[in-house]
Design brief:
The protein is mostly beta strands. A hairpin with a 2-residue loop joins β12 and β13 (127-133).
Length: 464
């Protein structure tokens, strides 16, 4: 069996326009096949690029496009600390922290902290009755009392009925990681009506017949976190320490989807299939990572290939078949659809929708009245703080757009027939990097007033 290795060839080409540079780096196996890209991102200081593929992780210096460090880990997500000194890399087999200056790697060992609700129960007369409530625990704070009957729990957007299922079923339903939310339906003692109570599991341990509560670990605000799914939960790790930062469960959407953490580390948003059938196939859920509470949800009815937050953490961006949708997190509605060089006819159809208005709590309902682009125009995208949108297409095109008015700025890479797997613009807006079929390219964003040689200037009229 042939052992695979990466072949790195760096090419520097000086274009005949001002301040422009162009480099390529090839990532190929011994047989000459290209590795698939997993993660591509700049460090916050724009000095390094982290690229993850089937070969492993490469840390590439922007200055000269030099490979500085390599590690065999194959992470599906990477988070970098704001000072650009450390990267936290999570894969299905391991979690590692890399010192970006030295390339040294340390294994991060973590586990989901067990959580308790703080109550005991027994089956009496066919009913599951609370027999003890731990002082200061979540159940006591939620006003659950001895004698209340437990009838159901609520988690992952589903109700789990417990009537007649015995104590073991209750134990399994109440157990879960500390810091996760749980709803419990009870019938208060001496009453008839059912009542739902929401609480948060706390860190604790059971010693004999005693339940001991433990203090919650400190949470580091403002540090980027990385997310992945674990036993039906989305787990977020602190990029600096590797400790569990937050844990949450989606409610109206399936766990598997496309999600992102805001640059300020405060919010998590995910677009995925709806758990229950509705007017749209998909939905977006936005969560507060500090409280683990869902902030809001909104229907979404188009394809999605990549998602990310804006640089200021105020917008959630969804890349679709032929456009980028902009969800304003303060307004809680889709405020813009950035079209990628095609002229759609889009209407907002609310005639058959009962209840919410077009800009009501559930947001806008997008319905196409006259088709869409005949070709898929997006596989990957990125947007800078100044509103420059970089889009990679299935045909190999890499194009810069204005997110403000939707006009085309310039085409960076001509069509090659091979899809652009990843594209990113540096935080300082000086560089664009993209990966196409085994070739990682670094290109200067700056061009002179005459534009890139061999390209005709685009205008708003060209989009019509």
């Amino acid at each position: 069996m042939l052992r695979s290795f990466a072949c790195f060839i760096i090419v520097s080409l000086a274009a005949n326009y001002a301040d422009a540079e162009y480099y390529t780096l090839r990532v190929l196996s011994r047989s000459g096949s290209a590795y698939a890209a997993n993660v591509l991102k700049f460090t916050p200081d724009s000095k390094q690029i982290l690229f993850s593929s089937g070969k492993g992780v490469m840390v590439v210096a922007v200055d000269g496009f030099r490979v500085q460090h390599e590690q065999p880990i194959n992470p599906f997500t990477i988070a970098i600390t704001p000072d650009s000194k450390q990267a936290l890399m999570a894969s299905s087999r391991a979690t590692q922290a890399m010192n970006l200056a030295t390339g040294q790697v340390a294994n991060i060992r973590w586990q989901l902290p067990p959580g308790i609700v703080g109550l005991r129960y027994e089956e009496q007369g066919g009913k599951l009755l609370v027999t003890n409530v731990t002082a200061g625990g979540p159940a006591e704070e939620a006003k659950i009392k001895v004698g209340d009957e437990i009838v159901a729990t609520h988690e992952f957007g589903e109700r789990r009925n417990l009537l007649g299922r015995g104590e073991k079923a209750v134990t399994e339903a109440l157990q879960g990681p500390a810091g996760t939310n749980l709803g419990i339906s009870i019938i208060p003692r001496g009453q008839r009506g059912e009542k739902r109570i929401d609480l948060v599991r706390r860190r604790g341990e059971v010693v004999g017949d005693t339940v001991r509560l433990l203090p919650p670990p400190p949470r580091r605000n403002g540090v980027p976190v990385t997310a992945f799914s674990k036993d039906e939960y989305h787990v977020f790790l602190d990029a600096a320490s590797g400790e569990v930062n937050s844990i949450l469960a989606t409610e109206e959407v399936e766990q598997a989807g496309l999600g992102a953490v805001s640059p300020d580390g405060k919010r998590f948003a995910i677009v995925a299939d709806r758990r229950q059938q509705g007017d749209t196939e998909y939905m977006v859920e936005v969560f507060d990572l500090a409280t683990r509470q869902r902030v809001f949800s909104i229907p979404y009815d188009d394809s999605y290939y990549e998602v990310q937050f804006s640089a200021d953490s105020q917008q959630f961006l969804i890349g679709s078949h032929d456009s980028v949708y902009v969800l304003d997190l303060d307004e809680r509605e889709f405020t813009k659809q950035i079209n990628l060089g095609w002229k759609p006819t889009l209407r907002i159809d609310t005639e058959d929708i009962e209840g919410d208005s077009p800009k009501g709590p559930t947001g806008w309902w997008f319905k196409e009245s006259s088709g869409r682009s005949p070709d898929r125009l997006l596989t990957t995208f990125d947007m800078t703080a100044d509103g420059t949108l970089a889009v990679g297409a299935p045909n190999g095109e890499v194009t810069l757009w204005s997110a403000t008015d939707g006009t085309k700025i310039r085409q960076v890479e001509p069509p090659s027939g091979r899809k652009v797997e990843k594209v990113r613009i540096s935080p300082d807006s000086q560089w664009i990097t993209y990966y196409i079929s085994g070739t990682l390219t670094l290109d200067s964003v700056a061009v002179d007033s005459e534009g890139t040689p061999g390209e005709e200037p685009d205008s708003a009229a060209a989009l019509e």
